[in-house]
Amino acid sequence: MLTSYCLSSFFLMLPEGLFLCHSCFISSLFGWIEVKGGLAGLCVWGCNHGNTESHGERLSSLISQMVAGIWKITKMRTALCLWIVMGVFCLGEVKGHKGHGGDRHQGQGLDHDRRHDNDRGHNHEHKQDHNHGHHHPEASDNGTKLVIQGNGGFAFSLYKQLVAQPDNQGKNVFFSPLSVSLALAALSVGARGQTHQQLFTGLGFNSSLLTQEQVDQALQSILTQLNQKTGVDLSIGSALFLHNTFKPHPEFLKDMKRFYRSEGFTVDFTNTAEAIDTINKYVGEKTRGKIDKLVKDLDPTTVMYLLSYIYFKGKWEIPFDSEDTKEDTFHVDDNTPVLVQMMSVKKRFSVYYDQEISTSILQLHYNESVSMMLALPEKGLASLEEVIGQNHITKWHRWMKARVYQVHVPKMSITTTYSLKDVLSGMGMPDIFSNGADFSGISEDLKVAVSEVAHQASLDVDEAGATAAAATGVVIMPLSFRHTPVLKFDRPFMVIVMDQETKSILFMGKIINPANK
């Protein structure tokens, strides 16, 4: 509907514009004739300036003729420019209204007034244009591609940082890179100077190629597409909890609401128990009860709590039959077997074997563009973690082939909780936690810094499908045409939940022991 309306607005103006250009072209033609005639007259006048004719009157007449011709030319150029500006203006206005109208904002304290007097924090000497509604579609498309690439790179960087943490050794790792990047990108709206630069670099955004405006618009587009899916239950957004005496810049609140689907609430952080309860109830509601204790304690000097959430529940396109689920052995390592409930089904699946890294990949589709990819390396998970990157996901999608397989996948229900302060500092974003943090785009009256970034995710996989909230080798044996190749996930593997439409990694992690909660 938006595209149709934009084009209609443009083309309704087009006939008038063409008529205007045509009529002005005729005017311009006569204008050039008059100018050239005036120039010729001046030459003649210059050669015959000794004649008895009044030189002053003749010179005045020739100049008047040239001025009239120039005016006709100028009028045509002005009319054409106005027509083009009106066309771009209408396209920009419609796109801007669409983004504004798509907000579903409840709560208090989010001002609709818009000011554009603050720099967005890039290392530019000039002030940037904050008129988000007016932009070239080509620039927007390119910005979205760069943001998607940045998000993909950030997902794998964050994964490698998490699995390297001493506390995570030998444990399941599961998180939502999109939820984390969404919160940090929202934070960058109010960051300035080096703080902003560190956030952009850490998120995988090149500030010489991407502006804050492009990031805002790209994430707005991604969030809109994800929240509009009907074949799966997918909800993603953010929220701001503000101390009742803290007044951030109105433009910061405006951008949070418009581009990051942020809901706003005022709380009294000095009453820590009540503030914790308010935030946890909100998160529990948004994640359908999967995560209800994100916040365990709060500093009473807190002035703002920014959170992002994502909830996903999808049914398998090819479901497992619960009658075929049996108790089986999962090998955590060579010396640690555990009993799990192993689901099994024989159907046509998308499978790929990556010879370069000796890894088998199974793609389990949901009812829409979302799918779960399970990667099982022959040489151990550590060998896969050393080399895997965004390019592997692209390659796997390209070379997936459908074939009948006997697939075995363990049922699992896991919950993970992470403090990301040290992780994000290690990814090049230490300033946001320091006294030198520059969040003057949030508030100039009160100097603020980030005290903690908490992340919690959960994953449930059963015969019907998977629910997630932010949350011995493979035996492939084509012995003969009468035998079905087997793909059995009975040892540590990697899991990636991805939306192919937006190229977004919603969740990712590794399963070391599906028996652990």
From TrEMBL:
Belongs to the serpin family. Keywords: Glycoprotein, Secreted, Signal. The keyword Amino-acid biosynthesis does not apply. It comes from Hucho hucho (huchen). Residues 98-139 have a biased composition (Basic and acidic residues). This is Thyroxine-binding globulin. GO terms for cellular component: extracellular space. It is found in: Secreted. Residues 98-144 are annotated as: Disordered. Major thyroid hormone transport protein in serum. GO terms for molecular function: serine-type endopeptidase inhibitor activity. The keyword Transit peptide does not apply. SUPFAM superfamilies: Serpins. Residues 1-23 form the signal peptide. InterPro entries: Serpin_CS, Serpin_dom, Serpin_fam, Serpin_sf, Serpin_sf_1, Serpin_sf_2. Residues 156-514 form the Serpin domain.
